[in-house]
Write a structure and sequence with these properties.
This protein is mainly α. It contains four helices and two strands. A two-stranded antiparallel sheet has the order 1-2.
C-alpha cells in the first residue's frame, strides 16, 4: 500500500510544474522483509521499521494506539 502511495505522490510531484522543475520526488527503496521488524535496508540511519511505528516495539502502543483507537 505504501509503495502505491509513494508512486502516486511522485506522479503528482512530476505533473506539477514547480515541483517538476525542481525535480522533487520521494526516494524509495526495495525492501525484502525477513521479519515484521527487520529487512534488508534496516541499516539506513534514523529509520524505524513500519511495524514498530504502527504498533511500537512492545506491540501495545505506537501510532495505531494513538490515532486508530477502536480500530482492529
Amino acid at each position: 500500500v505504501m509503495e502505491q502511495f509513494f508512486s502516486l505522490v511522485n506522479m503528482f510531484l512530476q505533473n506539477h510544474r514547480d515541483t517538476s522543475e525542481r525535480r522533487l520526488r520521494i526516494r524509495t527503496y526495495n525492501v525484502v522483509p525477513f521479519t515484521p521488524s527487520a529487512g534488508v535496508v534496516e541499516w539506513v540511519n534514523r529509520t524505524v521499521p513500519l511495524g514498530d511505528y504502527l504498533l511500537d516495539s512492545n506491540r501495545i502502543g505506537g501510532a495505531h494506539a494513538r490515532y486508530g483507537t477502536g480500530d482492529w
